[in-house]
Design a protein that fits this description.
Blueprint: H1 3-11, H2 14-23, H3 27-33, H4 40-47, H5 50-59, H6 74-80, H7 84-93, H8 108-115, H9 118-127, H10 142-148, H11 152-164, H12 170-176, H13 188-194, H14 198-205, H15 210-213, H16 226-229, H17 243-249, H18 265-272, H19 277-290, H20 294-316, H21 352-360, H22 363-385, H23 392-415, H24 426-457, H25 465-491
Helix pairs in contact: 1-2, 1-4, 4-5, 4-6, 8-10, 9-11, 10-11, 13-14, 20-22, 22-23, 22-24, 23-24, 23-25, 24-25
C-alpha cells in the first residue's frame, strides 16, 4: 500500500485520500483484489479516526469484513487498541461484524469475553444475539473462553443473558452451549473443574441434566474425575464445599462407572428396529407439515379457526324439539306409501322397529353428531398445524379447555331436548362418547407437551421427574374430572 495512503489513514486526512484517488482511480480496487491485506480501514480503525474510517467504508464497504495478513478484521483491531467509539460506529454500519471470524476463529465477541469487557459484551449481544453460538477453531464457546481466562463476571453476564433471552433460538442455545464440548471433549464444567472455579461449577450444575454432568472428555474423564486427575493447590481452594462433592451431590459419576458409547450408539438400536405404525404415521405427518409453506400454513390455520367458530356457534343455538301434536319435520317417515290403485297403505302401529329407526335416523341428532365431528376435526388439525414453539403451549392449553367447554355445552344444549324421552337416541350416545374421548385425548396431548417442555427447560434433575408427573396429573384431574362426571351422567 502507498506510504501516502498509510499516512492519510494514520492521521485521518480525508483530503489526501481523495488526492490519491484522483491520481489513481483504481488505488482502492487493487487493495480490494488482494484476499488478505492491511487496508486503510484497518489503519484508521486502529488509530480511532472515525471520520476517515466511515469515509473509507462508504467508498469500499467490503473492507469492513476483510482480514489483514495477521488474521484481524478492522473491528478486532479497534477492540485491541481500545477504540470504543470506532467499534460502536462500525456496529452501526453492520451489526454482522460481531460474527466476523479472525485468527483461530476468534470473533469480536470472543475478544471482549477474553478481555472481560462486560459493557461491550452486553452491547454485542444486544445488536447481534446470534454471535453467542460462534465457536473458535478449537470448538470453544464464549463460555469456555470466559472460564479459561478467569473472567467470572463475563461468565455470569453470559449465563444471565442466556436464561433471559427471548430470541427464537434461546431455548436451543441454553440446552446446547452450556454442555458444548471443545476439541478435547471438555465441556465448560470440565474446564471449571480443571481451573478450580467452584462458583462456575455451582451455576452450571443448576442448569445441566445428568447426562451433561456425566459427559466424558477425550480421555474418558467426567467432571467428577477432574479433581483427582488435576491436584489443586490447597491455598487456592476458597469455597466451603469442594468441587467433587458438589458434582457428586448433583448426580456426577466417575467415567469408569459409565459405559463407553460412541456418538451414534444411542440411535443405532432404534434404527435397526422395525418401525411401528405410530412412528410411521408420525413421520408421514411431520414430512407433510414441513412441506407446507408458511403462507399456506397461515391460510390453513385461518380456515380451521373459522370452522371451529362456526361449529361452536351452532351449539349455542340448538334446534328446538317440535311438539308431540305436530308432525315432526326433522324425522324421516318411511311408512306412508301409495299403491298403484291409489289406495293408501295402512301405517303400521308403533313398534320396536319404529323406535329403533327413530333413534338411528333422527335428523336433529345426526346434525349434532356431524357438528361434533367437524369441531374436533378442525381442532385436531389446528393442534397439528401449530409451530413447535414454547409459546404454542398456551394455545394448546386454551384449545384443551375450549374443547372441554364444547363437550359440556353440547350436553347442556341437548339435555333439555331428550329429558322427556325414556330411551336416549343412539347417535346422541355416540356423540357423547366421541366428545368424551376426543376431549380426554386432547388434554393428554397438552399435558405431554407441557411436561416435555418443563422437564427439558426447568427440571434438569431426573429425581424431580416423579414430582412433575404428579403435578401434571393433578392439573389433568382439575380440568377434566367435572366434565368426565357429567359425561357419565349423560351416558346412563
Amino acid at each position: 500500500m502507498d506510504e501516502r495512503m498509510i499516512g492519510a489513514a494514520q492521521t485521518g486526512d480525508i483530503n489526501i485520500l481523495y488526492e490519491l484517488i484522483l491520481n489513481d482511480p483504481y488505488v482502492l480496487q487493487r487493495i480490494d483484489d488482494v484476499p488478505f491485506f492491511h487496508t486503510p480501514l484497518h489503519v484508521a480503525a486502529s488509530a480511532g479516526h472515525i471520520d476517515f474510517m466511515m469515509e473509507m467504508i462508504n467508498l469500499k464497504p467490503s473492507f469492513a469484513r476483510k482480514l489483514n495478513q495477521a488474521g484481524f478484521s478492522p473491528l478486532l483491531l479497534a477492540l485491541q487498541n481500545d477504540r470504543t467509539q470506532a467499534v460502536l460506529r462500525l456496529l452501526r454500519f453492520d451489526k454482522g461484524l460481531v460474527r466476523v471470524k479472525g485468527r483461530e476463529g476468534f470473533t469480536p465477541l470472543h475478544h471482549v469475553v477474553r478481555a472481560g469487557n462486560v459493557d461491550l459484551l452486553v452491547k454485542f449481544l444486544e445488536v447481534c444475539p446470534e454471535a453467542i453460538e460462534d465457536v473458535t477453531v478449537r470448538d470453544e464457546t464464549v463460555f469456555h473462553i470466559a472460564v479459561n481466562n478467569d473472567m467470572l463476571e463475563a461468565f455470569q453476564v453470559l449465563v444471565g443473558w442466556l436464561i433471559r433471552s427471548r430470541h427464537e433460538s434461546a431455548q436451543r442455545w441454553e440446552k446446547e452451549l452450556l454442555s458444548w464440548a471443545n476439541i478435547d471433549g471438555n465441556t465448560v464444567l470440565h474446564v471449571a473443574a480443571i481451573r478450580n472455579k467452584p462458583l462456575v461449577v455451582k451455576v452450571l450444575l443448576e442448569r445441566l441434566c445428568g447426562d451433561h454432568i456425566n459427559a466424558k472428555n477425550a480421555e474418558g474423564l467426567t467432571a467428577f474425575d477432574i479433581p483427582s486427575q488435576y491436584p489443586l493447590d490447597e491455598g487456592k481452594v476458597d469455597y466451603k464445599e469442594s468441587i467433587k462433592d458438589m458434582i457428586s451431590k448433583a448426580g456426577g459419576l466417575s467415567g469408569s462407572l459409565l459405559p463407553n458409547k460412541s456418538i451414534s450408539s444411542i440411535h443405532i438400536n432404534s434404527l435397526k428396529q422395525k418401525m411401528s405404525c405410530f412412528r410411521k404415521f408420525a413421520t408421514i405427518a411431520d414430512r407433510g407439515k414441513k412441506g407446507i409453506s408458511p403462507e399456506m400454513l397461515n391460510t390453513f390455520l385461518v380456515v380451521t379457526v373459522l370452522i371451529i367458530t362456526t361449529t361452536y356457534d351452532a351449539s349455542l343455538n340448538p334446534q328446538k324439539k317440535p311438539d308431540d301434536n305436530s308432525s315432526p319435520p326433522d324425522h324421516l317417515n318411511y311408512y306412508s306409501s301409495l299403491d298403484s290403485t291409489g289406495i293408501t297403505a295402512p301405517v303400521p302401529s308403533p313398534s320396536s322397529t319404529i323406535v329403533l329407526i327413530d333413534q338411528l335416523i333422527d335428523v336433529s341428532t345426526m346434525f349434532w353428531l356431524y357438528n361434533t365431528l367437524t369441531f374436533w376435526a378442525a381442532t385436531v388439525l389446528t393442534v397439528f398445524l401449530l409451530p413447535s414453539r414454547s409459546i404454542c403451549l398456551f394455545l394448546l392449553i386454551t384449545l384443551s379447555l375450549f374443547g372441554t367447554c364444547y363437550m359440556l355445552l353440547v350436553a347442556v344444549s341437548l339435555g333439555d331436548l331428550i329429558s322427556l324421552q325414556t330411551t336416549k337416541p343412539l347417535l346422541y350416545r355416540s356423540q357423547s362418547i366421541v366428545n368424551y374421548s376426543l376431549s380426554t385425548t386432547l388434554a393428554l396431548v397438552v399435558l405431554y407437551r407441557i411436561s416435555y417442555y418443563i422437564l427439558y427447560r426447568f427440571v434438569p434433575k431426573k429425581k424431580s421427574f416423579v414430582l412433575v408427573q404428579l403435578v401434571f396429573f393433578s392439573v389433568f384431574a382439575v380440568i377434566l374430572v367435572p366434565a368426565i362426571l357429567y359425561s357419565e351422567a349423560i351416558l346412563y
